[in-house]
Design brief:
There is one protein chain. The protein has two helices and no strands. With 63 residues, it is an all-alpha fold. It has one domain. The longest helix is centred in the first third of the chain and has 30 residues. The two termini are 22 Å apart. Keywords: Membrane, Transmembrane, Transmembrane helix.
Length: 63
């Protein structure tokens, strides 16, 4: 595997770790506070983090 594949693999692993942490924390919070708005908040924050991560990787490739 060359460096590009390793970089893509690391980005995918990091995204999966972020999503997994968010899902677990959302489920733990929902156990105590059953509020549908929390679900939308966590889904929105995961999407936001993914967009930021994608943009950061694009800028790194340009430089």
């Amino acid at each position: 595997m060359n460096k590009t594949h390793m970089k893509m693999f690391n980005i995918i692993i990091n995204d999966m770790a972020i999503i997994w942490r968010r899902i677990v924390s959302a489920l733990m919070l929902l156990r105590y506070f059953y509020n549908p708005l929390l679900v939308f908040f966590f889904i929105g924050s995961v999407l936001f983090l993914l967009i930021i991560d994608r943009n950061r990787s694009v800028y790194e490739e340009i430089e």
